[in-house]
Design goal:
This protein is of the alpha/beta class. The protein has eleven helices and twelve strands. The strands form three sheets. The protein has a seven-stranded parallel beta sheet with strand order 3-2-1-4-5-6-10, with helices on both faces. Bound molecules: 2-amino-3-ketobutyric acid (AKB).
Length: 313
């Protein structure tokens, strides 16, 4: 098997930073090109500036680095998306369309598209949400990812593009900070617990959401991309589940290590977004098709997060 030559868009984002490093470890630093409009990661390895709407530049990078696989992570998340809906639609949907067209034109071997639990909405069963349900998302971010999934499915059917996708729950990791999401509280809370022993939460105490720890995200994504083509039955987002918890439960998990940690609740506009999403996810298709299985639960994640963040600071 020949070594893939990978291009990652949005590589400076929360997931991009960690995935880029993991792919470099797996395939070699010279095989993975990080791209972003944020050049903060340029010192970490192969990097090129890329505005995702600039398809001419993307085409020239694909040629220059002889790219064979793309991980298209560039996107605006749920909360930021509501602040500028048209811009979000443009980046998230037109950005994807540009990548899909160039993937076909350049005969890219494999493409990864991250979807999200934000595709679900108030019409979706909220507990153990099945893979195939009516999707009526409440946010522009969710709308763009729902449409993105349909475009991915279409490009697979119409052009044979080997596209693979996951509906990520809220992602929690110590290495990077999320920007503009509704699940961001679950990362902020660990930083606040260590620094101030207090956190002001923008969601209500009992808002249950599906979440996942970064090592599981990275393993899941790499395993999905490495799975044999025949085992990938869905060419839109696979449901994926790590754990589900509320702000009150994550606070209690932190208090096992920092007993004087306190939390107060001041819900803002993000509460309505969270309330429209699932509480827990049925990911049996991912488990059956490509052997998905998460390793972390709330308490093992908390222990690891607090220890990693303490030694980082
Ligand atoms: C967000 O909160 O917008 C993201 C997501 C669930 O996709 N973390």
């Amino acid at each position: 098997m020949t070594q893939p030559r990978i291009l990652i868009t949005g590589a400076a984002g929360q997931l991009g930073r960690v995935l880029t490093e993991a792919l470099r470890l797996k395939y070699g630093a010279d095989s993975v090109l990080a791209t972003d409009i944020n050049s903060a990661i340029e010192d970490l390895g192969l990097f090129e500036y890329l505005d995702i709407l600039n398809t001419e530049r993307l085409q020239s990078l694909i040629e220059k680095y002889q790219i064979t696989e793309i991980y298209h992570l560039a996107a605006i998340l749920s909360a930021n998306g509501e602040r500028n809906p048209s811009f979000t639609w443009n980046i998230n949907l037109n950005g994807l369309l540009g990548v899909l067209k160039l993937a076909v034109k350049n005969k890219i071997d494999k493409l990864f598209f991250p979807s999200t639990i934000a595709v679900f909405g108030n019409t979706t069963p909220q507990i153990n949400t099945p893979q195939d349900v009516p999707l009526l998302p409440e946010t522009v971010y969710g709308m763009s990812k729902t449409s993105g999934e349909l475009w991915c499915n279409y490009f697979h059917k119409k052009h044979g593009l080997d596209i693979r996708s996951i509906r990520y729950p809220g992602v929690i990791g110590w290495q990077s900070i999320p920007e503009g999401g509704t699940t961001d509280y679950a990362v902020e809370i660990y930083h606040a617990a260590l620094k101030q022993k207090h956190y002001e939460c923008f969601l209500e105490a009992d808002t249950r959401l599906p979440m996942i720890y970064m090592p599981d995200v990275i393993n899941g994504t790499i395993n999905l991309m490495a799975a044999p083509k025949e085992s990938i039955k869905l060419r839109y987002g696979y449901n994926l589940s790590g754990m589900s918890f509320t702000p009150k439960e994550i606070a209690a998990s932190i208090q096992k290590h920092i007993p004087d940690f306190t939390i107060e609740y001041k819900p803002d506009f993000r509460q309505a977004i969270a309330a429209s999403w699932s509480e827990s996810i049925d990911d049996s298709k991912a488990r059956n098709d490509w052997n998905w299985s998460p390793q972390y639960n709330l308490d093992t994640m908390t222990k690891d997060m607090l220890s990693k963040l303490s030694s980082k600071n």
